[in-house]
Each structure stands twice: as C-alpha cells, then as structure tokens.
Design brief:
This protein is α/β, with parallel strands linked by helices. 24% of the residues lie in helices and 23% in strands. Bound molecules: S-adenosylmethionine (SAM).
Length: 246
C-alpha cells in the first residue's frame, strides 16, 4: 500500500526521503499542482459542483506546515494525534455521494483538520455544517480554520448531535462497525448518510432513509476507525498505522 511513498517517523515528521520539494526533481508550484489535481478529479467523473467547492478551499491551510509541499498530492497526510486528512479524491467521492443541497443541515463525524467540513460549507451555502471530533486539540485547530457556517464540537460523534438534529445529510469520515443507531435516528426522512463500515476490510456505504432504509456499497476503502460508544474500542485505533488511511 505504501509503494512509491515516503514514510513518517513517530512524531509524524516526514523522513528525508519525503522532504525533497517536488516529484522527479522538478519544481512545481502549489498552484500548478492544485489545478492538476482538480483536473484529475474532473477526469474521474467528479461533479462540477463538488470540484468548484474544492477549488475554493486551500488544502495547504489545513495541514501541518511541514507537509505543505504535499498539499495537492492525492493522498492522506498526517495531522497529529495519529490522525489524517483524507485524500482529495476521497473527499470528492464522498461529497458527490452525499449530494448536498444548498441550505442543508449537515453533520460530519470526524472533523480531523476541518478540510472536508470546509468543502461541505461551500456546498451548503446558507446552511450549516456541524462537525464533531473526539480529539480536543484537533477540534480546536480546526475551529480556527473553518468558515463561519461550520460549527466544531468535541465529543463522541457516534452519538450524533441531538441538539441540532435532524440532519439532511450525515457524513462519517471514520470507519464504524455498523451504522450507529443515533445517527440513523437523527437523519431526516429523505436524508442521506455516507459512512465507511468495517475494520480491516472496509467498504464505503450510502445509506438512504426513505420509507425503508437502503444501504448501497460503493467500493473498498481504508479509513481510520470510529472510536466511541457505537464505534470500535480505543485499543484498536493505533495511531501510527493510520498513516495511509483516509
Ligand atoms: N474529515 C477530516 C479532514 O477533512 O481532515 C478527516 C477525518 S480523519 C480521516 C477521521 C477523524 O475521525 C479523526 O480525526 C478521528 O479522531 C475522528 N474520530 C474517530 N472516532 C470519532 C468519534 N467517535 N467522534 C468524533 N470523531 C472521531
């Protein structure tokens, strides 16, 4: 899985292999890499609406400074506390599946860096994105970066956020054993939830709540684990092995 990539040491710093500024010795500006990444998302079939939203959020503002040169590499990057910012193509795929409408009331479980919430904030326009992170430090850092229609909370997101429910859309950015019942209960009728399920073997699901609940699989993924009451136990979430997880 890590073929062709560098590595990180225990403090999350890039090793010397990764500190070379650019691919193949060529210097390419972040801006050129940003454009190239957005074009690659377009070729993958990501909707114009999601690409436009992503084009308005600078990924370099959501990652530690020492990883800035890699902001537009399409891969997860370390953000501290053993967690990662998701790869851009995964952010795009999840946003497309979620099909966020302007003015939607959205809940995100797993704020991490705040990047995905900031992209959702572009898509909801006048709506609000509530996001929950279990690590207080990550939540605080995200709070300082996100736009004003994103509200960051600290806590166990597997319980949802009853205070602001119901939600038109729920995005879970860490992998759960099954759909947490409180999240399903807090989804509006007609609402959509995107959630990875599984531990070693994970799959991305679109859950729709209509007269009945439907669950549609959308391919294999590798996310960090949801840790909480309706998640996995603490011991299973080992920081360093998360490096290549979304
Ligand atoms: N959306 C993030 C971004 O844009 O940077 C990436 C999120 S990262 C892949 C998953 C996050 O879920 C981690 O920051 C992790 O701490 C968080 N997490 C895991 N279990 C959680 C829980 N029960 N409640 C809230 N956050 C949780």
């Amino acid at each position: 899985m890590s073929k062709g990539r560098g590595d990180v040491n225990d403090t999350g710093q890039p090793t010397t292999e990764r500190t070379g500024r650019s691919l193949g010795g060529k210097q390419r500006s972040l801006e050129a890499e940003r454009v190239s990444l957005l074009q690659s998302l377009q070729r993958r079939g990501i909707s114009e609406r999601v690409i436009r939203a992503m084009s308005k959020v600078k990924r370099e503002d959501y990652i530690p400074h020492n990883w800035r040169d890699y902001a537009y590499h399409d891969e997860p990057l370390p953000i501290g506390n053993g967690q990662t910012i998701s790869a851009p193509h995964m952010v795009a795929i999840m946003c497309d599946l979620l099909s966020v409408e302007p003015s939607s009331n959205v809940l995100e479980v797993g704020t991490g860096s705040g990047y995905h919430a900031a992209v959702l904030a572009q898509l909801v326009g006048e709506g609000t994105v509530y996001t929950i992170e279990r690590f207080g430090q990550l939540a605080q850092e995200a709070r300082e970066r996100v736009p004003s229609n994103v509200v960051v909370n600290t806590g166990d997101g597997s319980l949802g956020f009853a205070e602001k429910a119901p939600f038109d859309r729920i995005l879970v950015t860490c992998s759960a054993p099954d759909v947490p019942p409180p999240l399903l209960a807090q989804l509006t009728a007609g609402g959509r939830m995107v959630i990875p399920l599984g531990r070693e073997i994970q799959e991305l699901y679109l859950v729709c709540k209509n007269n009945e609940i439907t669950k549609e699989a959308h391919g294999g993924v590798a996310f960090v684990l949801l840790v909480g009451e309706y998640g996995f136990g603490e011991a299973r979430d080992s920081g360093r092995s998360n490096r290549f997880r979304f």
